[in-house]
Amino acid sequence: MTSRTVLGLATGAIYAFLFLPLAAVILLAFATNQFGGFPIEGVTLQWFADLWANDAILAAVRTSLVLGLATALISTAIGVLAALAMVRHDFPGKAWVAGVLLAPLLVPEVVLAAALLLFLSWMGVPRSFPLLLAGHVIFALPFVILVIQARLTGLDPAYEDAAKSLGASPVQAFFRTTLPLLTPALLAGALFAFTISFDNITGTLFWKPGGTETVPTQIYAMLRDSVSPEVNALGAVMVVGTVLVFLVGLSAMRVSYHERTD
Amino acid sequence: MKMPGTDSKGADSKRALAHRWLLAPAIIAITLLLLVPLLFTVLLSLGILNVGNSENTAGTGAWQSVLGDGFYWWFLVKTLLVAGVSTLVAALLGYPPAYFLATSRSRWRPLLLLLIVLPFWISYIIRTMSWINVLGASGAINEAAMGLGLIDTPWPLLYNQVSVIVGLVHFILPFMILNIYVALDGLDESLPGAAKSLGASSWQAFCRVTLPLSVPGLAAGSLICFLLAAGSYVTPIILGGPKDAMFANLIYEAMIIQLDWRTGAVLALLLLGALGMVTAIAARFLGLERIGRAAA
């Protein structure tokens, strides 16, 4: 065996380590076994039907969707402005500002979760949906800024200047030239923010009011007993759903890339 | 909010100050939702401000009772150890695929790279929980071993320190692979070739040229992985037993279960301080910007 073959085999083993556990989730979602374990005794779609009839899970999905969309909207709106300032403007203390914008990435999630809970409780905000939303926005914001910044850096400000020299006001020029060119990055940033919110669990456990569950905390609560086939079914839906969104996002990026280069 | 100087008429000075308006929402949000809360946590831990049922005597009492208690120190050391071991394992497991990807000329390379990024998008709790299906009493490994007649009763693979580390490695490995890959991909391919043409074996060329040049990526990836592992809250609960809790679990326990917010504040700051020290030491060697990029 050449060393290249050994390397290839090692790489294959790592990919198996990364993805076989997820394959087990999907397989067991279709198994008739009552207690969600191997060996698979038969094939059924019952667990998916159970999911659809489970009010707690449906409520959690609704909460997560609303929270994710609100997080995406707010953090993208705030993030695009900050990214514009960082890419299009020079000012004293810029490196320092860049550090502040990345600060939420550098503080461990559990510390941010605890600190925000303590401070907002002191301000009179209890564990609630607004607290959840504020926390998710802070988690998502640095990622949104980085994504939009990366795209803005490649955008020539000459378009905006050209529009202005043709008589557009600065605001018009921005909305008619830069913003449309920035749309793919805005969507990517929003998708990022949505995913971060939809996936968040540690902060959410600190901030959520009693009785409210998001999808991850609902799964977490269901895991307290053991892995039920229903959890596997939910996991299968989420994994397959994520892969589909991922592929759609990828092809969308490809299309916009070709539009840009053609 | 009124910024000084925004009344000026000149378009140039308007443009020169536009960044303030653009940055204001983000800076205000991060200040109010991160920096001020951290400052507040310090004041609360010292009893200067109070919230909930935290005892309202100012002083270092809460700090003294935490720092004087070996239990908390033991947890801190254990948490850093578990994070360190997970990071080391991730580095060892992550290097070969990163090297393979960086040196591959296969037309599957873009797909293989995408697969490394894919776990970031897949639900963390599902990825963690999936190990119960693998390591559990009726999980894939035990059922396979019993099916082959190797054992009669299942191995206790789950709910121990090892299963927690397996879950952490599974979570941090993509970060490690990507960071090493980026370092290796940016490497001048002719360098190991030059070493070989000067008589080095492939293995020597790797050890003396490629490996040292990939150290920045390895170090940045290790720091990110270490911080993620050391702050993990969910993995030890789902994959560990009662004895395998980590420091983040202590913070939650103090704050949410026992409602002892002042102790929770001290514990959160202690973790922040410990991880901040690790980051500061790493930043001296790597530069802060690099860490920010690695985190993203």
Report on the architecture of this protein.
The complex is a heterodimer of chains A (262) and B (296). With 262 residues, chain A is an all-alpha fold. Chain A has a domain at 54-224: MetI-like fold, CATH 1.10.3720. Helix content of chain A is 79%, strand content 0%. The model of chain A has no long low-confidence stretch (mean pLDDT 88). Chain B has 296 residues and is an all-alpha fold. Chain B has a single domain, classed as Orthogonal Bundle (MetI-like fold), CATH 1.10.3720. Chain B is built from 14 helices and no strands. At the A-B interface, helix 1, helix 3, helix 4, helix 5 and helix 6 of A face helix 1, helix 3, helix 4, helix 5 and helix 6 of B. Chain A: It holds the Pfam family BPD_transp_1. Chain A: This is ABC transporter permease subunit. Chain A: Belongs to the binding-protein-dependent transport system permease family. CysTW subfamily. Chain A: Its main location: membrane. Chain A: Keywords: Cell membrane, Membrane, Transmembrane, Transmembrane helix, Transport.
The number of strands of chain A is 0
Helix content estimate of chain B: over 70%
Largest interface: A-B, 90 and 91 residues
Spatial shape of chain A: globular
Percent of residues in beta strands of chain B: under 5%
Structure class of chain A:
mainly alpha
| Order of helix and strand elements from N to C terminus of chain B | HHHHHHHHHHHHHH
Oligomer description: heterodimer
Query: Which stretches of chain B of 5+ consecutive residues score pLDDT under 50?
Result: 1-9
**Average pLDDT metric of chain A:** 88
Shape of chain B: globular
User: What's the architecture of one domain in chain A in CATH terms?
Assistant: Orthogonal Bundle
Whole-number total of structural domains of chain B: 1
- SS field, number of helical segments of chain B: 14
Alpha-carbon distance between the two ends of chain A: 45 Å
Distance between the termini of chain B: 31 Å
Category from helices, strands and their pairing of chain B = mainly alpha
Fill in the CATH topology of one domain in chain A.
Answer: MetI-like fold
CATH T-level fold name of chain B: MetI-like fold
CATH superfamily of one domain in chain A: MetI-like
Q: Estimate percent helicity of chain A.
A: over 70%
Family (chain A): Belongs to the binding-protein-dependent transport system permease family. CysTW subfamily.
InterPro entries (chain A): Bact_Polyamine_Transport (IPR051789), MetI-like (IPR000515), MetI-like_sf (IPR035906)
Organism (chain A): Alteraurantiacibacter aestuarii
Main location (chain A): membrane
